[in-house]
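Dear colleagues,

As part of the handover before I leave the project, I'm documenting each prediction I ran so the next person doesn't have to rerun anything. This entry is a single chain, and its sequence is reproduced below.
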Amino acid sequence: MTGVKTPLGVNYIEELKSVEFKLFSKNAKKVFLCIFDSPVNENPLMELEMKKIEDDIWITYVKDYILNCSKRPIFYGYRIFGPNWEYKENFEEGSKIGFISNFDEKGNRFNPNKIAYDPYCRELSHTPGQIDKAFRSYRSGGEFYLSPSAKSAPKSVFKQINLNEIQKIEPRAFSSEIIGEVHVKDLTQKLDIEEKGTFLGASGFVETIKELGITMVEFLPVNEFDSYQNGGNYWGYMPLGYFSLKRNYAFDKTYGNILNEFSLMVDKFHKNGIKVCLDMVYNHTGEAGLVNNNPDDAILLSYSLIDNSTYYKVYKNGYYRSNSGCGNDFNANQKGVLDLIIDSLVFWSNLGVDAFRFDLAAALLENSCSCEEIYDNIDSLGAKLKEKLEEKGVKVVSDFSKNEPGVVLIAEPWTCGGKNCYHLGNFPSFWAEWNDISRDTLRKITIRPQEVTPLQLKELVEGSPNIFNSANKSINFIASHDGFCLYDLNHYNRKSPQTDGGSNWEISSDYNKNTDLQKNAMRKQLALLFLSYGIPMIQIGDIIAHTKNGNNNSYNKDDETNYLNWKQAFSLGSFENQIMQYTANLIKFRKQNPIFQDKNYKDSLTYYYSNGEIANLENKGYWDNPLDLFFGYCIESDKRIYICSNKGYDKLNIKLPKNNPQKAWYKALDTTDFSILDLSKKDYIEKDYIINPMGFCVFVEE
């Protein structure tokens, strides 16, 4: 595999023996390419005027004998003039020559005193806060608008490299995947290895992930972000670039090497049959935002300097719309911005990435380039994403039950604010969706059982067919990076005082510190997750009962709050080890019974009352009654599996369904029996069974 090229940004053109620089800006009036010999503490070595061609593209070429990009990295950026800051030949850095205003009513924020990094750059030399933690040289307010940023601004990095070939995975149904969500650094940071916390460290840990049963790893954002931003940024949901990787995640941090280390990690995962999913944040960036809510004082790093009114949703008064809750909203449906999103997805697909999870993906359903909130699942980018990717040669999976080649698109189907911002079930059929309704049911079954009806449990185990029109596209989960982890939601009533942000209204409980109830709750929630229709997702930390000590918003904790303790998990007899074994065996049981992902799963189900009789689906007195304590259903496949639950605080005497001839029921699981970790060990059940308080049982007919 040679170096992956991009439509814009920087590419080496072999036939010209030159390096091509291309930048999109609709509203710029003059653009200069700035080449630096070093990324910090230096002014540009050379400045070259760029030429505007069709489609608002600015371009220039530099002979490679000058840059020698195959042997050393190029550091570059852009100085740009526009309607609010006119170009004058006598302009000098640090002056206000040509200045009209910090911003105009059309949303322009051009400032040639600031150097913009390339939105298409494949690597950033450093982050803004590494050089200027207060971000003073990047601001536009007060006298800061005259402060040159050339010596401190992040520089785009380009080096011509050849990447290793990445092994492909044979197509398999997305419905068969077990998704494990994890932060790259958290995964291995506590291991006693030199490469801990890096892509290389993750590569060396792949066998353990495979043993757990995970078939697709979903990494929290790996695009470059600033760790110093907003009082500490660890999760990475403030992306600076969509083609560049977080330098700290590379073991070898040499300029030009990060992409290669990432591709080697993907190759290692693929060779072990594990797919890679990246969490992408296209609803906002980690750049533009106002200081002290002052429209005159904005952070200017890249997109805002290149074409603020194109890249962001802006008001005439200089404010940014912020339905993302993060200071700005990306103008995803705008030409140029839309192309950047598509091109970055193609870029990562070409590097072997198998799936993408889209943060606050409802933003991609907006069909407006202004601040209007117009959602559209027919003509918006979100609606046409499959079509646009396939035009670029990237196939998108559309039927999650078939062994289709292609990438999978996963939506977080809401945003943080604005009108009509919740869109669960509204995405086109080729999108899988995070299902917060199933999440809440999975939690409430033990935490607020009085709120759960048999009908809600039926919806859960069937993959929410009423929401998704019976399509198998529900991503079921108990916990994700947002909110309490699995252990904490069953051990805390309220968040820890050490939490920055977060909510006290999250569904959680300490069960009056009754340890048996806490253990059973975790086991019951996990069993329901993996024995329901849809695609199960679990935090890898939850597999080993990781605790954040009640912190339910650990976005800024680069410490043991988030780091996973594998030593404790591998300690035989520990609670963490028992949960790990139990979860791995649940996953194994699910894989051994492919009916759980069969497209005809719903047709295989028969529901039962506690007396062993078939439940009448028209009996609303049962299905809509949250006070009915029993829920049971039988799955008919190559063998019968009977699953039932007691959500009451007293024992419940039940009758199992009548057996087929020469068959009998065997108990595979009772969540209240903590000695049961392996669902393959079965106890013969003659006729009746007593389910313990809050118990959950699985029986197999043999």
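The CA atoms of residues 459 and 643 lie 15 Å apart. Residues 602-701 form a domain with the Immunoglobulin-like fold (CATH 2.60.40.1180).

All the best with the project,
I.
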